[in-house]
Every structure is written in structure tokens, then in C-alpha cells.
TrEMBL record:
Protein name per its UniProtKB record: Peptidase S9
Domain of life: Bacteria
Domain Dipeptidylpeptidase IV N-terminal residues, every copy: 121-409
One Pfam family this sequence matches: Peptidase_S9
Region spans: Disordered: 81-105
Signal peptide: 1-19
SUPFAM superfamilies in the cross-refs: alpha/beta-Hydrolases (SSF53474), DPP6 N-terminal domain-like (SSF82171)
Keyword terms of this UniProt record: Signal
GO MF: serine-type peptidase activity
Gene Ontology biological-process entries: proteolysis
Length: 696
């Protein structure tokens, strides 16, 4: 009878996939970047523009010279001596304040005007300086010095000064010092000495005291402070976007309340000191200041452009600074991804949008422009993919490059006047890549936990995929609420391909709680990071396996991730251990009380309450089912490495079996090192395939 069981076991593993996890599989996996390199051509256009704005030229993949006439809409291959001599390449972008980068790496200017700040007054008659933690005035002609403030002291002192344009008033920011928590790291095996080293870094954690910065108004002629009430800004996480009105009558600034449920644009009256709320956002959950705070002051019309999710979608509003009245600039069941520029002269805004083409993937980046009164929306891009653009110097045309995970780049020339295509430029050729056996990741959509919301992801198969075989399934997870994480653009070597080459099917999913869908979609994460979208992810994987019989869930699903993904992958085998049975967690922020303050308080709020403990992998460690490998670098300066060790301690106390890899000298993301990556691969091969890695 035991022989029968042994034979059945062998047959089961053979059915899962012959020759998986072999030496050859590892060699192919570890060389994905090499065997896919250079096998996709014609992926981009590097233009050289003529000064008259009518033509540009570039070299194509065949090293031919291509001349494009933007006015005539023609594209032709020409001899080098036929190229316009005065054409120049696009200059590198200037370093400016920017908002979040899109997937292609392009950054876009946030364009809040720099405030009037500094020591000298605009009329040159006065200079400010700090002395004994207070603000002083110096007459630049007589050198006479006068103390303006008297309440400054060490640990609660004045700093930055913002002068009114008429030099009659100034705002000085007074900051009360916050906590001084430090994390100590031990380098066990330094290269330059035998004995260990210690180092410390400043590292505030949720609940710690934070610096409190508040504006104070001063009358220069009277040489005294004008009293202002902080009733509308009592507990700032941050203040910013400081700006004096050009007539010097009001000083504007944003107030982000600790806990991030209140965001205001406030105005201080320069004569009375009265503070009023021009914009008051009081949220039931959080205001995503890290990604969706935008202010552009329009001085000539006493207006401001403001970004808000007040109607359930991230949109732009035109604010009357005198009355606080807000009017939609953009609206609809789609989101503004970022502002590129505000054209004050033509009263329009150029921006990136997601979901603006309802028949496409809602995460595709598209470019648009619209009038500030909300009319005249022009969609500058429309191809079914995620887009990056390069504008002609006169901004009358743009070179539009778009792609998908299953579509190599397509490059077009388009007009900005109406968004119409002028001509095709290039279409990438992936024929050589496909000859290797490489397969496009497959986009897949399934309904989420509510039965109505589409959940998007993709499936990656090995290059030697055989549809008649069975393949264990592994999810690569990152559920951080600051973004969405399923790649939308084309890559010949997607990150997941390496693991797939061992004989796995890898999936990547954006569940509820991640960013850039509706506010309701995003709000799932609030005080609930342990959710990680798992109810959506599990339904998605089950739906995919129902359609694709090669996806074998019989031994459970594997899962891995780093940082926030490390937290989620461990959570999977604690809370959903009947579905996820093998996990590798790298540098996880396992307990949100242990991690950096800004990221965790944004989603988990403040003050620190019982929900922090409820979401902690330390608290839930006793629920472990299945196999778990914890990985951490002892010199992780992003996530306190003690976070991983506290999970290990809790597992030991609960008498749970697990594996722990602490890498001497390793930093954040050490599982991406050659050794860490190999150990992760081996763990899945052993525990999902049931074979010894590289044994064949």
C-alpha cells in the first residue's frame, strides 16, 4: 500500500509539470535580460526639430534617416544630405518641482508659484535675520536692528520668512520641534574591520511627536506681531504652498491636518489677522496629499486651480479666492493623474488622465487639455495603451508613444489643436523576441468582492509553456495604496518572467485599496492595510484558473513581495492560509507602528488606535498556515529591520515553523540580490513543485 501512495505522489508531481525547477530552467530564468535584449526594434523616436516648427527628423531602427513634415503630414526616408541643417534635438528637461512620475518616467511640473521669501524685503529697505530663535529686522540703510518676535526659543523657533509684495507685512514660520526617535542598525560583518559597527538614523514612527509649523503675521511699520488665531490650523502635519496676493492683502497657505482627514487652503487677512478657509476638505477617510495635492494660484483673476476627490473621482476645480466658490474644470468617472501645465494666457490646463477612454483599461495614461471653465476637453491621445508624449518646441504637435504589456510600442505624430493623428511614425517589431518562445503577458479582468467592480491584472507564462501541462501559480504582490502596481507598458523582460521560467505561472493584480481608481476603490485601504485587496485577488485568481486549466491551484497559491509587499505576502498565509500556502516576504513593514511615519499615518491615520495592532502581522502571527520564508537585510534604512524580527519572535512564541534569512550588510530589497533571489526561487520550487532545485 505505501508503494501505491508513493507512485501516486510521483505521478502528481509529474502531472504538475515535467522538468520544472531544473538547472536549465534556472539558467534561463537568470538570463532573461540577456536572451530578450535587443530583440524588439523601432520602439522610440528621438526627434531633431527645425526652428520653424514645421519639420523634424530621426533615425529609425534600420539606421535610415526619416524626415517628417508636420504641416504636410508626410514621412519619408531621405539621404543624410537632405536633412535640414538647423534641426536640433529636444533639450533635456529643466529641474523643477514635480508631481509623481508616470510609468514611463516622465515628470510634470506642479507649477505652484514660488513664494516671496528670503531675508531682504522687495523694496530693499529691510532685511530679516534670526537671533536667539526670534525674527529681527535690520534697516538696510541705517543698519538699525529691531526685534520683531519675542516668543521664540530653542525647540520652538522662527525660520522661513515670506515678505508681502508691498514690504509692509511679513509672515514668519515658527516651528516647534518634534520627536527625535532614532533607529539603530548593527552591521555585523563590516568589510573594513573585524568588530561590528553600529549606525543610527532619524526615523519617526506613527504616533511620534512631529514638528509643528505655523505662520505668524508681522507689521513691519509698527514692528510688532498681528495676532492670528490658529483655530483653523491647530495641529498641522504640514503647511505649504505659501503665497502672498499681489495686492499684499492676503497670505495663502495649505493646511494638512495630522491624520490627513482635513485639508484646507487658508487665507490670512494682512490688516486684521483674521484667518478664513477658502477651501475646506473634511474627509471621511483621508486626503491623499502625497499624490493628489495641487495648487496653482492665478493672480490676475484672483483664482486658484485645486485638485480634489470630493465627488468620488480625482478632478480639478477652479476656486474663486474671494468667495471660495468652486467650479469643476474636469469631471466624470475617470481621474486626473497629474497636471502638466496651466496655461494662464489661454486659460487652459494640460493634464494626464486615467480612464478617460471608457473602452480601455482604466489605468492607461492619456494626455488631455481643457479650458478652465470646464469646456473644450481635447483628448490628445487615443491609442489603446498607456502613453508618453514629447511636444514639439512650439507645442503644436506631439510625438505620442503608447504600448501595453501585450503590445510593443506604437509611435504617432498628433496635433495638439484637436488631438488628431497626423501620421504614423513607427511600430515596434517583436518578431525576434517571439522566436525565443517568449509570450506576451496576458491581461485578465475579473469582478471584485462587490460583484461589479473590474479588477485588472496579468498572467505571465514561461517561454517553454505547454498548455497540456499543469503549472503552480504564484502571485507577485505589492498593494501599497500610494499607486497602482500592475505594469501597463510593454517590457521584453517583465519582472515576473524570471520566476515564471522555473515552471510557474505568475500573476500580478491590483485589488481594491490601491490608487488611481475611484475614491471608494481607494478607501478600502483606510485603517485596513491588512486587507491588501485579498478578497479581490482570490476571486481574480480563481476566475483565471477556471478559464485556464493549466493554472494548478491544487497545492495552493504561492505569493511573494517586498516592503509593503512583504507585509502583504505574510498576511496572506496568516489570514488566507487555506488559499495561499507558500510565501516569501522581503523587508516587510509587518507592523505599521514600526514603519516610517508619513506612509503609515496617511493610510492608517492618527492617533494610533487598536486598528494598528489588529492589522499587525506580529499580532496575527499565531494564525500562520503553510510555508513562510522571511528575508531581511540587517542594514535596511527604509523599513526598520526589527519589524521582520518581531514577526519571527511572535512565530517562535507561537511555536510555528518558518524560515528566516537575515543578510549581513543587506539593505532594503535584499531579496533582489543574486543570493536572495536564488533562495526565494528555491523556496517555491521545493514547496510548490515538490522537487529539489536544480537536481535535474
Amino acid at each position: 500500500m505505501p508503494r501505491v501512495f508513493a507512485l501516486l505522489a510521483l505521478l502528481t508531481f509529474a502531472h504538475i509539470g515535467a522538468a520544472q525547477g531544473t538547472k536549465q530552467d534556472y539558467e534561463r530564468a537568470n538570463s532573461v535580460g540577456k536572451w530578450t535584449a535587443g530583440k524588439v526594434t523601432a520602439t522610440k523616436v528621438a526627434p531633431n526639430w527645425t526652428p520653424d516648427g514645421q519639420q523634424f527628423w530621426y533615425q529609425n531602427a534600420n539606421k535610415e534617416f526619416v524626415l517628417v513634415d508636420m504641416v504636410k503630414g508626410t514621412r519619408e526616408v531621405v539621404a543624410e544630405d537632405k536633412l535640414p541643417k538647423d534641426a536640433k534635438p529636444t533639450p533635456p528637461p529643466k529641474k523643477k518641482r514635480f508631481d509623481a512620475a508616470d510609468e514611463g518616467g516622465d515628470t510634470f511640473v506642479r507649477l505652484a508659484q514660488p513664494p516671496r521669501r528670503g531675508a531682504e524685503s522687495p523694496d530693499g529697505k529691510w532685511a530679516t535675520f534670526l537671533k536667539d530663535s526670534n525674527v529681527w529686522l535690520r534697516d538696510t540703510k541705517t543698519k538699525e536692528e529691531t526685534q520683531l518676535s519675542t516668543d521664540g526659543k530653542p525647540g520652538d523657533s522662527y525660520g522661513t520668512v515670506f515678505w508681502a509684495p508691498d514690504s509692509q507685512k511679513l509672515i514668519a514660520i515658527k516651528t516647534k520641534a518634534g520627536g527625535d526617535r532614532k533607529v539603530t542598525l548593527v552591521e555585523s560583518s563590516p568589510r573594513d574591520q573585524l568588530q561590528p559597527k553600529t549606525s543610527t538614523l532619524n526615523y519617526l514612527k506613527p504616533g511620534d511627536p512631529i514638528p509643528l509649523s505655523k505662520p505668524h503675521l508681522f507689521d513691519v511699520a509698527a514692528k510688532k506681531e498681528v495676532a492670528t488665531s490658529d483655530e483653523l490650523f491647530p495641529n498641522p502635519w504640514d503647511t505649504g504652498f505659501e503665497h502672498w496676493a499681489p495686492d499684499s492683502k492676503r497670505f495663502y497657505f495649505t493646511y494638512n491636518q495630522r491624520g490627513h482627514t482635513v485639508m484646507r487652503l487658508l487665507a490670512i487677512d494682512a490688516e486684521s489677522g483674521k484667518v478664513t478657509a477658502v477651501v475646506n476638505e473634511e474627509c471621511k477617510t483621508f486626503f491623499d496629499y502625497a499624490n493628489k495635492l495641487f495648487v496653482q494660484y492665478l493672480d490676475d483673476t484672483n483664482e486658484a486651480v485645486w485638485m480634489s476627490e470630493r465627488d468620488g473621482w480625482n478632478h480639478l476645480y477652479l476656486i474663486d479666492l474671494a468667495t471660495g466658490k468652486a467650479r469643476n474644470i474636469t469631471k466624470g468617472e475617470w481621474v486626473v493623474r497629474g497636471v502638466e501645465r496651466v496655461d494662464v494666457k489661454n486659460r487652459e490646463v494640460w493634464f494626464r488622465a486615467l480612464g478617460v477612454h471608457p473602452d480601455q483599461d482604466p489605468y492607461h495614461v492619456h494626455f488631455c487639455r481643457i479650458k478652465l471653465d470646464g469646456t473644450g476637453l481635447v483628448k490628445l491621445t487615443d491609442g489603446d495603451g498607456t502613453h508618453t508624449v514629447e511636444y514639439s518646441p512650439d507645442r503644436k504637435h506631439l510625438i505620442d508613444t503608447y504600448s501595453r504589456v501585450d503590445l510593443p510600442p506604437v509611435v504617432e505624430l498628433r496635433r495638439t489643436a484637436d488631438g488628431k493623428k497626423v501620421c504614423d511614425l513607427e511600430k515596434a517589431d517583436a518578431a525576434e523576441l517571439l522566436k525565443t518562445g517568449w509570450r506576451y503577458p496576458e491581461r485578465f479582468v475579473a469582478k471584485g468582492r462587490d460583484g461589479t467592480t473590474d479588477i485588472h491584472g496579468y498572467i505571465v507564462r514561461p517561454s517553454n509553456f505547454d498548455p497540456s501541462k499543469k503549472y503552480p501559480v504564484i502571485e507577485h504582490i505589492y498593494a501599497g495604496p500610494h499607486d497602482h502596481h500592475v505594469r501597463k507598458g510593454f517590457s521584453p523582460a517583465p519582472y515576473e518572467q524570471r520566476m515564471a521560467e522555473l515552471g510557474f505561472i505568475i500573476v500580478k493584480i491590483d485589488g481594491m485599496g490601491t490608487n488611481w481608481r475611484s475614491k471608494a476603490f481607494h478607501d478600502v485601504c483606510w485603517k485596513n492595510l491588512g486587507d491588501s485587496g485579498f478578497p479581490d485577488r482570490i476571486l481574480w485568481i480563481k476566475a483565471a484558473a477556471e478559464k485556464y486549466k493549466e493554472m494548478d491551484l491544487s497545492k495552493g497559491v504561492g505569493i511573494f513581495g517586498g516592503s509593503a509587499g512583504g507585509q502583504s505576502s505574510t498576511r496572506a498565509v496568516l489570514a488566507f492560509g487555506d488559499f495561499y500556502t507558500v510565501a516569501v516576504s522581503d523587508c516587510g513593514c509587518h507592523d505599521n507602528r514600526m514603519d516610517k511615519i508619513w506612509w503609515n499615518e496617511l493610510w492608517m491615520s492618527w492617533p494610533v488606535g487598536p486598528h494598528y495592532a489588529e492589522q499587525s502581522n506580529v499580532t496575527q502571527a499565531h494564525k500562520l498556515k503553510g510555508k513562510l520564508l522571511l528575508v531581511v537585510g540587517e542594514l535596511d534604512r527604509n523599513v526598520d529591520p526589527a519589524s521582520t524580527l518581531q514577526v519571527a519572535n511572535a512565530l517562535i512564541r507561537a511555536d510555528k515553523d518558518f524560515e528566516l534569512l537575515v543578510v549581513p550588510g543587506g539593505g532594503h530589497g535584499i531579496a533582489e540580490s543574486p543570493y536572495g533571489s536564488r533562495r526565494r526561487m528555491d523556496f517555491f520550487v521545493r514547496n510548490l513543485m515538490g522537487v529539489e532545485p536544480r537536481a535535474r
